[in-house]
Amino acid sequence: MKHTLAVLVENRPGVLSHIASLISRRNYNIESIAAGLTEEPDVTRITLVVEGDERIVEQVVHQLSKLIDVISVTNLTHIDSINRELALIKVRATPEGRTDLMNIVEVFRARIVDMNRETVVIELTGEEDKIDALCRVLEDHGIVEMVRTGRISLTRGPVAVKQGGS
User: Fold this and answer.
1) What is the C-alpha to C-alpha distance for residues 37 and 114, in angstroms, rounded to an integer?
2) Helix, strand, coil percent values for the chain (each to nearest 5)
3) Model's pTM, two decimal places?
4) Are 144 and 52 in contact (CB under 8 A)?
5) According to the model, what pLDDT value does residue 26 have?
């Protein structure tokens, strides 16, 4: 099972690599990792997706909580949350296939953000399954290059991940 962890950390050099190495040293796989500033300029929020059972995730949370630069770790897996990912997908675009590509983009509520004689770059924000579905459809056109941000998550409603969360 995939688990989503929200980790608030001090915004200092090396913290992200320290967290990633702690997890990899224990032989756990990070499915995705995304980090960015929060509403507080000295705090970074890291969203981790790790695969494993509840015991493994509890160990990861416990180990992360021990790190000096970690403010809080919250397991969002069973909390009502909004999960999104951003993808940029470069696809081959023949003159004959452009109309089909534009229709696909419209159906998925994506956007074309760049176009030239040979390729089109499509931007899509959504849940992982939606991006996976778009990629499967675009395979027929030929995906040239792709980048995905990994999952980012926020809890729904007034409850926020705060210092001391678990």
Assistant:
1) 27
2) 25, 40, 35
3) 0.84
4) no
5) 81
